[in-house]
């Protein structure tokens, strides 16, 4: 029996099996001991609720990743302007200056028009529908295909839910009331407003209130009740329009340098993915609670008049939005691929939502 054992160990097969058995734990131990120190920048200032501070924020995401990885992946978070300017995250991640950036993909539409679809599309999907498309409808795969030429990958890491249309000093009764109006409104929505005669202004968050108060602008959009109240916008304008047609669900983006991503072991990649998915849900939940409280305060205690936009105005905006989206899709194959996927999913989701969410809001909620 002893001679047979020695013979087995002396063969290549026996030695290989033993070597693999002895070597595997050492390899796993070496991988588990490897640590990574990354930098993450943001498009938002340090301390900004939801974006940089609180549940689901960039700092919360970094903390969760650190804890879930048992300290193997440590992420240092920088607010806008601390390491790079607010809107230079795309280039910083692409060049490898930082490994991550926390922002919204529609800031990069100048790099690729398809980026718009991964944040929010006017008259598009709500929070539930957006998550359906991203996680189960091929949206994240298209996101990464869009960024592949730039050497980056991305995933959702937060959502504001439906945003508000914005603050207006005067009541809006028709499309004619928009002509010549000076309004702070960024992105694709700004193009829609411009097509309807609005003098569009792009201002960072900190400049919105003084501009509105002094009459430099007549209207402004920011996020929603909690964030808007924090800026004091209710002190400069009293008409607060609902029907957040322009951003029915605004997704936050975790942008990652692909070369750095591929150096992470699979378990750490899974940590990042799962922490981001958690923040996507947790951040939106935070918005729901805080917006509900802030909206009640604005209407009941601060004299704000909340109104839906007139149907004729919404219809005009829908028409202009379609023109702009169709033109962008026609001009670029990747944008068309994303556009077609997004709206194919939306057609099916809208049918289901008419039986589920719409019925709840119209019949059940009371």
Shape: globular
Alpha-carbon Rg, integer: 25 Å
Helical content class: 40-55%
What proportion strand? 5-15%
Secondary structure tally: strands: 11
Number of helices: 14
Strand order of the largest sheet: 7-6-8-5-9-11
Structure description:
This protein is an alpha/beta fold and 366 residues long. The chain contains 14 helices and 11 strands. The protein has helices spanning 2-10, 12-33, 58-68, 89-95, 127-136, 139-147, 187-195, 205-214, 225-231, 258-263, 266-301, 311-331, 333-355, 357-364; strands at residues 36-42, 73-78, 100-103, 152-159, 166-168, 182-184, 199-201, 219-220, 239-241, 251-257, 305-307. The protein has a 6-stranded mixed sheet, covered by helices on one side. Strands 2-1-3-10-4 form a 5-stranded mixed sheet, with helices on both faces. Helix 7 packs across helix 12 (311-331). The longest helix is centred in the last third of the chain and has 36 residues, at 266-301.
Task: Provide a short characterization of the protein structure.
With 366 residues, the chain is α/β, with parallel strands linked by helices. The chain has 14 helices and 11 strands. The protein has helices spanning 2-10, 12-33, 58-68, 89-95, 127-136, 139-147, 187-195, 205-214, 225-231, 258-263, 266-301, 311-331, 333-355, 357-364; strands at residues 36-42, 73-78, 100-103, 152-159, 166-168, 182-184, 199-201, 219-220, 239-241, 251-257, 305-307.
């Amino acid at each position: 029996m002893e001679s047979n054992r020695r013979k087995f160990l002396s063969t290549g097969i026996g030695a290989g099996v033993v070597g693999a058995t002895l070597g595997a734990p050492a390899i796993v131990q070496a991988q588990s001991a490897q640590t990574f120190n990354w930098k993450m920048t943001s498009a938002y200032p340090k301390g900004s609720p939801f974006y940089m501070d609180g549940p689901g924020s960039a700092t919360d995401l970094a903390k969760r990743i650190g804890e879930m990885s048992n300290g193997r992946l440590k992420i240092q978070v920088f607010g806008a302007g601390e390491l790079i300017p607010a809107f230079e995250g795309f280039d910083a991640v692409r060049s490898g200056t930082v490994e991550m950036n926390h922002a919204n993909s529609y800031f990069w539409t100048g790099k690729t028009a398809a980026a718009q679809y991964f944040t929010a599309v006017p008259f598009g999907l709500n929070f539930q529908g957006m998550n359906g498309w991203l996680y189960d409808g091929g949206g994240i795969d298209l996101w990464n295909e869009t960024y592949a030429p730039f050497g980056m990958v991305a995933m959702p890491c937060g959502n504001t839910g439906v945003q508000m249309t914005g603050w207006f000093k005067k009541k809006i009764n028709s499309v004619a009331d928009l002509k010549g109006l000076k309004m702070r409104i960024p992105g694709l929505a700004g193009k829609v407003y411009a097509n309807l005669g609005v003098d569009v202004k792009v201002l960072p968050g900190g400049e919105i209130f003084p501009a509105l108060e002094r009459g430099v602008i007549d209207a402004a959009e920011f996020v929603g009740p909690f964030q808007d109240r924090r800026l004091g916008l209710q002190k400069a304008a009293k008409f607060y329009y609902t029907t957040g047609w322009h951003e029915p669900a605004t997704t936050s983006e975790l942008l990652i340098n692909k070369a750095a991503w591929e150096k992470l072991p699979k378990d750490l990649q899974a940590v990042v993915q799962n922490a981001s998915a958690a923040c996507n849900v947790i951040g939106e939940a935070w918005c729901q609670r805080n917006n509900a409280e802030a909206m009640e305060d604005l209407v009941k205690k601060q004299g704000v008049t909340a109104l839906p936009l007139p149907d004729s105005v919404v219809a005009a905006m829908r028409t202009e939005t379609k023109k702009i989206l169709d033109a962008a899709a026609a001009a670029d194959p990747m944008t068309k691929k994303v556009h077609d996927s997004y709206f194919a999913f939306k057609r099916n989701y809208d049918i289901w939502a008419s039986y589920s969410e719409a019925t709840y809001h119209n019949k059940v909620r009371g």
